[in-house]
Write a structure and sequence with these properties.
Its EC number is 3.6.4.13. Keywords: ATP-binding, Helicase, Hydrolase, mRNA processing, mRNA splicing, Nucleotide-binding. By secondary structure, this protein is of the alpha/beta class. Helix 10 (385-399) runs parallel beside helix 11. It is globular and about 90 Å long.
Length: 852
């Protein structure tokens, strides 16, 4: 059986334990020599401002340079070492709990790393090609040894050199210690680049701080190499600590974004010269490149995470919902596991806040490799930031010297539209400009296409012609999670999609919102990665100073917490008010979450997890969808609900290109179902399967092939969970009149809290919350039903409900009478209709009793 050295996994946790968050991604660095492999559960630099050398009169350059030294390397020498091999190097740590620095005497028994230890009767492997981290050697006790590690007490215990049990562990200096295969030539090329990274220069200092403290905060600036190197450094330490044990300890490193987890895993695999999916793997929601065991279950049997030696939280400054819950969980685990180490890695944002939260943990700074970045603002606000971004790209390509461009936009549709327009506009310029390679980047893009961001710019079209240029159009994933070499110009419209939640009306939605000053600094810093750069902000300097908040609000303060509460309950955390959140959510938000889970049957009236809630928590879905799936066998339609759930969990399957909108609308209408959008999605999935998943069929019908393949993958994974809990996969006969009725009833059983009623005035109101809403123009209904369930509430200039399906009022009182209890119902038209339905039901019951 293949054993993993590094595994990258996703959200719902470090086991379940390191939580469950629908959009988070976990990077797992594991060393599992003897135990079973882990598996799946299933994203501000230094800025200088000066005058513009561009012919672009649209922008005026700011002359402010007050923050010029904020990120200079002179401020980051606290942990630098003039001689990386010095036996007397010490590290001044800003924090409590400092132990003595670890010297070469501690680690090798010699204060001079140039003195090779002697072998006890056999040849020592003194060829540095064997060692991916350093060129030192361990002692051999009777045999040639694997000399990968020169710190033998890194994690606070006194390990001695591992002994071979009478056999040669490795007697070929050209073999990779992780997979016992010969090193490739590429390995040595990458190794030289790794050695030039700022974090490599402070490797010894990192080991010393890690040795002396249980928790450390590591601030790494742009280009420092912390994301790829620190997990490998820690893995080295863990291998030393457990080198002579059958069951190896593991190291987990979390990433808050799916794309980052995939990219980092590929890069780490390449640097270690191993195969992705074998020694290195990743696991994100609905995609797996690891093994078959579910990480989610770990915390249930291992509440103290006993199998883990070190946990690394990368990009902690992003403060995702998952990361914030992890903070609280790990803080408690650390109190009970003195041997567990935690490394919190961040950009230069909020480092002091992390220190305070973790009881004065030491702060270690690693300088980046930043160059000056000129900032340009617009003189007037832009009405259409997408159009302004595209025009700015063309201006840069026309007027500025060679260098790649990074454009920040808010989502897939916007990005794909921009890519098409940029290609078209540049093509219209003819031979006066060089060729361009326009590359999109967003989370749902296939891995092979995501990898294109690292490809070089195209060469000139002809010898001596204008240089080619790469243009990356990305979501905010490129702010800090990924580093793209060659970027010289950044275009920042100042917006990003953010989740917002109003607990009073129980509405959560993704809104295009202004970014924070911190995000603006991060974006600008992308331009100074390899050479001096320029950042074009498509908003005024006054707007930057007055309108942008200093930091992005933590996601936990603006999210529906139902899924989070369900996870915490599953982990046995009952007192949510006392849970140690870094930024506690509003009590009203917690109460709303508890209320919804109680209505869904996941919690009983005492707030305790029910059997139904336990099963629901195993699905990587929101609680309403999980409930719909779990109860679907009762309605004899679980196969169809599986397909609908999968389609709802992937990007929109309908393509609508601007140049063929009418044809695309006609194609969508062919799949339409008169009862609503959920059943339309089911029709699409069935047609996709009936046509053998043919790409040409998708093209002809304006169907997103990638979305359909993702839906198929999601469906298989959800089905595996259902089988694990003995939930029957069944269907009503397609020719039965109850086929679609049963499906709609099953959907209502999960989404009965998301119902809207058609008023006599002609508009809809959400039930209980009384919010006026409109059916989204994309709906497939050919009529206005009296009652609808909806999947999404969209906040724009008007409030829309999207993905809607027709239901019957009598189903509400039959399936969810506990929710539609009229004693606690607001006075509205829906209440009066429900009163009539309750009276009718009582009358029908009375007539039935009289007949019997």
């Amino acid at each position: 059986m293949r054993r993993y050295n590094i595994l990258l996994a996703q959200p719902v946790t470090v086991s379940h334990a390191l939580l469950a968050a629908a959009n988070s991604v976990w990077l797992w660095t594991t060393l599992v020599a003897g135990g079973p492999p882990l598996s799946r559960y299933d994203s501000p630099p230094h800025i200088t401002m000066g005058s513009s050398s561009s012919n672009n009169n649209k922008y005026n350059s700011s002359s402010s340079s007050s923050n010029n030294n904020r990120y200079s390397s002179s401020n980051n020498n606290r942990y630098s070492s003039s001689n990386n091999n010095s036996s007397n190097s010490t590290t001044n740590v800003n924090g409590n709990g400092n132990g003595p620095p670890l010297s070469r005497i501690d680690s090798l028994g010699s204060s001079n790393n140039n003195n090779r230890p002697k072998s006890n009767g056999n040849t020592i492997l003194n060829n540095p090609t064997l060692n991916p981290w350093n060129d030192s050697l361990n002692k051999s006790n009777g045999n040639a040894m694997l000399n990968n590690f020169d710190h033998l007490s890194i994690l606070g215990s006194s390990s001695s050199s591992s002994k071979s049990n009478g056999n040669t562990i490795l007697n070929n200096p050209n073999l990779n210690p992780w997979n016992l295969r010969p090193y490739s030539a590429r390995f040595f090329e990458i190794l030289e680049k790794r050695k030039s990274l700022p974090v490599w220069q402070q490797k010894d200092d990192f080991f010393q701080v890690l040795h002396s403290n249980q928790t450390i905060i590591l601030v790494g600036e742009t280009g420092s190499g912390k994301t790829t190197q620190i997990p490998q450094f820690v893995l080295e330490a863990v291998e030393l600590e457990t080198a002579d044990k059958r069951k190896k300890m593991m190291v987990a490193c979390t990433q808050p974004r799916r794309v980052a987890a995939m990219f980092v895993s590929r890069r780490v695999a390449e640097e270690m010269d191993v195969t992705l999916g074998e020694e290195v793997g990743y696991s994100i929601q609905f995609e797996d490149c690891s093994s078959s065991k579910t990480i989610l279950k770990e915390a249930m049997t291992d509440p103290l995470l006993e199998r883990y030696k070190v946990i690394i939280l990368d990009e902690a400054h992003e403060r995702t919902l998952a990361t914030d819950v992890l903070f609280g969980l790990l803080k408690e685990v650390l109190r009970n596991r003195p041997d567990l180490k935690l490394v919190v890695m961040s950009a230069t944002l909020e480092a002091e806040k992390f220190q305070d939260y973790f009881s004065g943990a030491p702060l270690m700074k690693v300088p980046g490799r930043l160059h000056p970045v000129e900032i340009f603002y617009t003189q007037e606000p832009e009405r259409d930031y997408l159009d302004a971004a595209i025009r700015t790209v063309v201006q840069i390509h026309l007027c500025e010297p060679a260098g790649d461009i990074l454009v920040f936009l808010t989502g897939e549709e916007e990005i794909e539209d921009a890519c098409r327009k940029i290609n078209k506009d540049v093509a219209n310029l003819g031979d006066q400009v060089g060729p361009v390679k326009v590359v999109p980047l967003y989370s749902t893009l296939p891995p092979a296409m995501q990898q294109k961001i690292f490809e070089p710019a195209p060469p000139p079209s002809k010898e001596g012609g204008p240089a080619g240029r790469k243009i990356v159009v990305s979501t905010n994933i490129a702010e800090s999670s990924l580093t793209i070499d060659g970027i010289v110009y950044v275009i920042d419209p100042g917006f990003a999609k953010q989740k917002v939640y109003n607990p009073r009306v129980r509405v959560e939605s993704l809104l295009v919102s202004p970014i924070s000053k911190a995000s603006a600094h991060q974006r600008a810093g992308r331009a100074g990665r390899t050479q001096p750069g320029k950042c074009f902000r498509l908003y005024t300097e006054k707007s930057f100073n007055n309108d942008l908040v200093p930091q992005t609000y933590p996601e936990i303060l603006r999210s529906n917490l139902a899924n989070t509460v369900l996870t915490l309950k599953k982990l046995g955390i009952d007192d949510l008010v006392q849970f140690d959140f870094m930024d506690p959510p509003a009590p009203e938000t917690l109460m709303r979450a508890l209320e919804v889970l109680n209505y869904l049957g996941a919690l009983d009236d005492g707030g305790n997890l029910t059997k139904l809630g336990t099963i629901m928590s195993e699905f990587p879905l929101d609680p309403q969808m999980a409930k719909m799936l779990v109860v679907s066998p009762e309605f004899n339609c679980s196969n169809e609900i599986l397909s609908i759930s999968a389609m709802l969990s992937v990007p929109n399957c309908f393509l609508r290109p601007r140049e063929a909108q009418e044809a695309a609308d006609e194609a969508k209408a062919r799949f339409g179902h008169i009862d609503g959008d959920h059943l339309t999605l089911l029709n699409v999935y069935h047609a996709f399967k009936q046509n053998q998943e043919d790409t040409n069929w998708c093209y002809e019908n304006f169907i997103n092939f990638r979305a359909m393949k993702s839906a198929e993958n999601v469906r298989m994974q959800l089905e595996r969970i259902m089988v694990r809990f003995n939930l029957k996969c069944c269907s009503t006969n397609f020719n039965s009149r109850d086929y679609y009725i049963n499906i709609r009833k099953a959907m209502l059983a999960g989404y009965f809290t998301q119902v809207a009623h058609l008023e006599r005035t002609g508009h809809y109101r959400t039930v209980k919350d009384n919010q006026v809403v409109h059916l989204h123009p994309s709906n497939c209904l050919d009529h206005k039903p009296e009652w609808v369930i909806y999947n999404e509430y969209v906040l724009t200039s008007r409030n829309f409900i999207r993905t809607v399906t027709d239901i019957r009022g009598e189903w509400l009182v039959d399936i969810s009478p506990h929710y539609y209890d009229l004693t606690n119902f607001p006075n509205c038209e829906a209440k009066r209709v429900l009163e009539k339905l309750y009276k009718k039901r009582e009358k029908d019951k009375e007539e039935s009793r009289n007949k019997s």
